[in-house]
Amino acid sequence: MQTGARYQAVLDLIETVWNSDVPADNIINDYMRARKYIGSKDRRFIAETVWNIIRNRMKLCFDAGADEPRKIVLLYLKHYTSDKPEDVFGSGQYAPAALADDEKKLLSAENEEPYPDYVEAECPQWLFSKVKDIALLKSLNNPATADFRINVKSREAVIDSLKKEGYVMTPTLYSPIGLRSEDRISLGNCMAYQNGEIEVQDEASQLAAILCDVRPEHKVIDYCCGAGGKSLAIAYLLNNQGHILAHDISSKRLEAIKPRMLRLGIKNIELTDIVADSDRDFDRFIIDAPCSGTGVWRRSPDAKFRLTPEAVQKLNYAQKEILETAYPKIKSGGWIVYITCSVLRDENEDIIEAFLKNKPDMECVNVREVWERKIDRPYPCRNEHYLRLSPLTTGTDGFFLTILRKK
Prior knowledge:
By secondary structure, the protein is α/β, with parallel strands linked by helices. It is built from 19 helices and 12 strands. α15 links the parallel β6 and β7. α1 packs across α3, α4 packs across α5 and α13 packs across α14. The termini are far apart. The model has no long low-confidence stretch (mean pLDDT 95).
């Protein structure tokens, strides 16, 4: 494809992303699937350019004084590439239309006004007021590494095996079962993945599974398990012993776990969309709470622009409701492990503090002590009851974890 045609594709995608509630990766995939004539190099260029624009959307909109896709692409060309806008727009049959006079004026102007903090942080203003941490938000705007966990006994052996396939992996800093690649890996071509030796999972999620401290004799439920990553990791940690109940209200999500179980050789997980009323003796009630996903913006930077205050309020209601569901179902000494991939206090500490205020028979477990028993690395937080992970502090996704015990 000629350069002009590439940027027309970028402009088409940006216009769709800007005006849709559909995740950008779905939009990009559908666009490419419908245009099989686009070559692999062009696909990569178009997708990477769209993601770069999304990651710089706030600054580009501020400089443009508007959220118009065409102006955004023009300023992206000016500030982030060596391609000249006048050489791209109107440069061929499939290129964007030639520059108008007002667009030429926009390109010739220089904005010397400093960015407000929320623009510098690439975060919508209402969300910035909740987080108020520019460094954290900037770290959440960088692309994520590719993290995996092992599904065999020896991490070193897997690293050697992957090296023979041409993949360079390093051990994760905290998780004893994690691997990290700075480069993309084609899972369809990776034999270690196809053979079930490794599984895709961010290091933060691995750590959450380890800190659940599940033993074979425990009665365990992974509530709202979603894609089942933590259930699969716990099953591996138990060496296929014990029994894990993986719950989700979506039968479609549960069905998607089955081929992963088969590939990984997991046999001690039972999938269910219902929890019996009589089940009131769980040792571990693991809540993978539905949340805003603000901790995983590295992987979906467009999600911050789809999130609304009303959506967060609805999630808060669901989080409180799920904790109330868990409370009567754990036995004396049993744990509720509350986990989110959110960096928002009102989905984390505020929810837990409100719950504990009305439950005098519940107490926080010292997470530092659990960490030091299970993980041979220094505890990364100051607070001993609330574990917060992030790309800024631990090089992981943003995660929150706390453990509540029935006295």
